[in-house]
Amino acid sequence: MNRRDGLAALLGALVVPAASLAQGARIPRIGYLTLAPLGEKPSGDRLAFLEGLRELGHVDGKTVEIVYRSGEMNLEILGFAAQSLVEAKVDVIAVAGTVPALAAKKATATIPIVMIFASEPVIAGLVDDLARPGGNVTGVSTIQTELDPKRLAMLKEIKPDIRRVAAFWTRFHPSHEAEIQVVEKTAQSLGLVLESYDVTDDLLGVLRTLGARPPDAVFVLWDVRTLSYRQFIIDFAFKHKLPTSMPLEPYVVSGGLMSYGPNVRAIFRRSASYVHRILRGAKPADLPVERPAKFDLVLNMRTARALKLELPATLTLLADRIVE
Question: Domain-by-domain residue ranges, the chain?
């Protein structure tokens, strides 16, 4: 079996059959594309998307058919996965994240694409403008370049004596270079020295280097890779007694100190409304891209105690969730 045949076999195995589909008239087909592995059970985020669809009358296997594809954390496979959705003749493609959105856009200029949690879509080249997307892409975005400075300021508030901050990002993510530039300017204004590290290929090598001369704190940018790497980063921070500023709640649940970012499940649920409108005839070019409406501050008190940090009341009183 050659490489292309092997990829085709893998992608075919990722199809979720709708055995209960009634014979007869064709029902709408929704493609769902993600970089992360699908797993045997839907993630909480994907469940929120499915719940949003159900609330609007779209039930998988009854009123719609959902065709799932995953890039399995591999860009080449992601490209094949996007193309296979086009060949499956889906009516709309829901894409979880910026990188899958770019893969889908490359695969088709005609099938509507709904972004779910895509960072800085204008910077990434997904849309021309948030208010007037143009083309075949719309959905719900994130605004990390606006949130990152606030996260860094919160980190400084938690531990005022920090000086050197190690920032972890990946060139894999289309908006990270722009984000790092914003964070560097914020660091200067706060009297901090930001040391940025691209951890795309060798996180463990970066951690070994930093272990010889640890920073005072760690700042992590969001993407699916840093999410999958989070336990290594958190273990390193615990070993060296470092506070961490994380982009989203799952990092803090795993042991990070704090996060400030969009409510991910709310975004996945909200994105279902875009799919609904498109299935009813709306054009992506006519649907403005939405920005998140809710942001969550999450603090991990167990981690704070382990680091012997007393979190300021200005933050604990504002926290949307405290992990004990």
Answer: 3-143+264-294, 144-261+296-323
Helix (H) or strand (E) holding 103: helix 98-107
**Maximum alpha-carbon separation in the chain:** 68
The pTM score is: 0.87
Could you report the per-residue pLDDT of 273-285, keeping only the tens digit for each? Answer: 999 999 999 999 9
CA 65 to chain centroid, in Å, comes to 24
The yes/no answer on whether domain 144-261+296-323 falls in CATH 3.40.50.2300 is yes
And the tokens for 204? 């463990």
User: 243 or 225, which is more confident?
Assistant: 243
How many Å apart are CA 242 and CA 211, to the nearest integer? Answer: 11
The span from the CA of 165 to the CA of 195, in Å, is: 6
- The class level of CATH for 3-143+264-294 reads alpha beta
What would the DSSP string read from start to end of 108-152? -SSS-EEEEEEE-HHHHTS-S-SSS--TTEEEEEE-HHHHHHHHH
DSSP tag of 64:
B
